[in-house]
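Standup notes
- HV: blocked on the assembly model, inputs below
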Amino acid sequence: MAVRSRFPAGLALDAHKQQACGTQIVELPLPAHLVLALDQGTGYSAEPVVAVGEAVATGTLVARTGHPFASAVHAPLAGIVVAIEAREAAVEGGRSVCIVIEGNGSDRIDDSVRPVKDPASLGPEELVRRLRDAGIAGLGGAGFPASTKLASARNLGAHTLVLNGAECEPWICCDDALMRSAASDVVLGALILRRAAGAVRCVIAIEEDKPAAIAAVTGAIDGLRDDAVTLAVVPAVYPQGAERQLITTVAGVEVPSGGLPADAGVICQNVATAAAVARWATRGEPMLSRVVTVTGSGVGHPGNVRAPIGTPLAALIAASGGYRGTPLRLIAGGSMTGRALPSDEVGLTKSMNCVLVATRDDIGSRLGAVELPCIRCGDCANSCPAGLLPQQLLRAALADAHDTLRQLGVHDCIECGLCDYVCPSQIPLADRFREAKRRLQEAEAMTKKAADARERHELRQRRLQEAATIEQETFESVRGRARRPGVDSTGDSN
Amino acid sequence: MNPDAVVIAVLVAAALAITLGVALGWAASRIEPDADSLVVRIDALLPQTQCGQCRYPGCRPYAAAIASGAAEIDRCPPGGEVTVRALAALLDRSPRSPDPAFGATKPAQVAWIDEAKCIGCARCLPACPVDAIVGAPRQMHTVITTQCTGCELCLPPCPVDCIELRPAPALSRRQRQPRAA
């Protein structure tokens, strides 16, 4: 079923997918060591449950968490924990505590890795709990734990599960490759996710420029004989794969500002997440690996690689033909929303869908670009998929005008970077908005803290006042009692 | 022209003035000033550090002093430029730099008690304007970091100088953003 884009604007970008897309997924041999970041890309860390020197088997839990935004981490490699220390990592801020595991040649598998006997018999709560224990995180790029989303979707009564196979970002094609080779896993995972979310319908959305993936998924859906699982072919317009935009296109509803997709009755999960859920169900495997696109003009053989979480990117690039030419930037993610990495020693995270080894040919036009004043051409507003007014936002951001920023809806900016892309003055708008959001959040937190302090201070003043009054009254009554046996106060004064 | 008309007009105007005057006078004395009164609005812009560096015993008294014109708007070092600018905008005055005579603007800070050195004298407890220190005589004391305003008022009473100010932990985390797949 083909549907048209329903979110405002967007832009058909030069996809750059041919470089990596033609090939099959390559299984990366287990590297000699792994660097497992405790923050898997969400900004929140799990807590290590192993010690340096401890032996771990494949699938052993090495870090667990109670935080809804962090995911549990398991050892993808049997070996010895050689270090737990802060290292450079592919996360916000560039550093995270990492567990470093060195392989010892053993192929021991942890006892906890057992196929799930009958996933269809498990209740939604039980499913969500087991997916959390298995460290299943969203593989679309944000790394948000699937269990947290599923639980809130069920609480809010979501009826539709949208599986995101849009993959609109240039360069990335790991989901495309996965859907072509493992469509049945995607569909099996979709059924489990639908059950866990308490949803009725499931729509698998794929961009129209992936005919092979569409054919494979169509075949898998036909094999199901389940009318509630459908395919939606969506236009290849960036950012079609952004959660809110995709929901608008597929379900025809807009996620309310400040709300969750579940408020609109929808929950969105990536197709790769569904495939990972299927691996968990059929093999009992927690999230140990992911498919990642290694591409860019700076790499020998661009392609898609299934690699263990924590694989140092150097090993990943070496397996893809090594560096070629003069790479300028190593980017986690695509060219629109990707993040520059500090080095190729960082480990693969669950949220990393692409390693872009960019040369001057790939990103040259933006390198060393001089920012010019805004000429108010309005191209940014015409391209914004969230329907915002970037030039007004920019003025407010530069002036730190918090009320104006809120009114203009800065929190609805999805940081897709289209405004930067079209800006003839080469203003890094998305960066400015990211910074503005951070400052706004900080200011709100300070206002809240001040209100707390005011309340505590006022309560304290009242308490001291009351204590003083009571003391005064006690004093008065004691003095009154002391005087009662004697003459009255007029006599006392003589 | 009928001279009576003039008398009637004057009487009516006078009666109206007296009635309204009495009504307004009664209202001023009986109806509480609403939450939007100037003092509250000024107080809302102050950082609530309750440090007393403005030489008033807290943020609210300083707000009252500004409202009555007794104090300038540049006396709040914890608020710094931001607070002065916000106050200037509210009161329609020209912004100015915070007056350094009242202290320097420092980055956000919170008190921290070196528990190994603390003798449990409990003298810092009454000094804290927001009750952010937990402790009792001869017991270990500690600061509730999230409630501490960094006012430094607990420093002078401490006989063993075991309290120091440390940079406040970040108030915000970067918001997780949905990303294009």
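- HV (later): unblocked. The CA atoms of residues 85 and 100 of chain B lie 16 Å apart. The helical segments of chain B are 3-30, 38-45, 59-68, 80-91.
- Next: hand off to the docking folks.
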